[in-house]
């Protein structure tokens, strides 16, 4: 039991360390606009549970999304990032008094979409481990994962709402949310090699 819990903690940390940055940015955005704190937590849980379900299904030998095309999920954070950037620019342009516009990030479903898009490595590791583990061990690992999602959200909120952090990022916060999402989306799409594969298919 303890070995399973320890393995689950290590596996979760290894596959979700980048989520801390995303959560920090989301909680930073929540100080001035959306999403609200509960939307971030609910969206993170919704997205992560979806990844776990996909992993379990894949472990049973079924394929939901072909590996060759999973990189297209990167279009989710990419689209959200571009939309947020355009919205921020429009708000800044509309401010006659020069007051800083509120950051508008995403709602619960947007957070869930980002979590899913950023979770290809989760599925690629969880699925084979689930397949080779006893059902009781899988249940323990999933339970540990769900507890750690709350820990991750708490850490992201702690970092993203600390006065020292927010003061340092105050001048760039309008660009931070879209930059992180656009960067994340481009990384997922390019790293997966789905773009040349798409051109080969269309050729």
Report, as a whole number of angstroms, the end-to-end distance.
Answer: 52 Å
Oligomeric state of this protein: single chain
Q: What helical percentage do the residues reach? A: over 70%
User: Low-confidence stretches at least 5 residues in length (pLDDT < 50)?
Assistant: 96-105
Average pLDDT works out at 77
Structural class: mainly alpha
In terms of DSSP E residues, the strand content is under 5%
Principal-axis shape: flat
Radius of gyration: 18 Å
Number of domains: 1
> How would a crystallographer describe the biggest sheet?
none
Helix-strand string: HHHHHHHHHH
Number of strands: 0
How many distinct helices? 10
How would you summarize what this structure contains?
The chain has 203 residues and is mostly helical. It is built from ten helices and no strands.
Protein architecture, described:
By secondary structure, the chain is mainly α. It has one domain. 76% of the residues lie in helices and 0% in strands. The chain has ten helices and no strands. Helix 1 crosses helix 7, helix 2 packs antiparallel against helix 9 (173-192) and helix 3 (37-59) crosses helix 6 (120-132). Residues 96-105 have low confidence and may be disordered.
